[in-house]
Amino acid sequence: MKLPGSAVAPALSHALPPAQEAAVLYADGRESEAADLLIRTLQGAEPGDDHRELWYMLFDLLRGRGDWNRYQQLSERFTATFAVAAPQWHNEEDMARLPAELRPGHFMLLFEIVLKGLVYGSMYALMSVGLTLVYGLLRILHIAHAGIFTLGAFLGVVVTNATGSLTLGFR
Q: Where do runs of H (alpha helix) occur along the chain?
């Protein structure tokens, strides 16, 4: 955003934290200055400082500007600094090359969500029916019922991992 005539862009308050200062610059239409401020702040940071918020802001800003080269350079530095992968650059071309079942909004994703909802709902129903049955027959409120259910699920996972057989784990 250019100011009319010979007006000078207002100076920023250096009392603001770098993240807020960069946000003000971005909101003012000074994207390159915001990116430069974030880069300078990250270069001057101490080795033990964890400025992930600034990194993520910078990645979003570069992605929005379409600055792929700078994004790649900084993502390598991010990976070296934090020993985790940097956020990925996604665009329409990359998404089009993905298999259909991995693209957002695909039918299989909806099917998986519905299936997981049914499984979790069934588990909750089974726990509540068990609790109701015990209370109805014995007139004892069995508070540890959920804990016992969880212990059974945990033992099923342990047996499945130890034997490699899903059938044995759920018997």
A: 18-27, 31-43, 52-65, 68-82, 92-97, 107-138, 145-163, 166-169
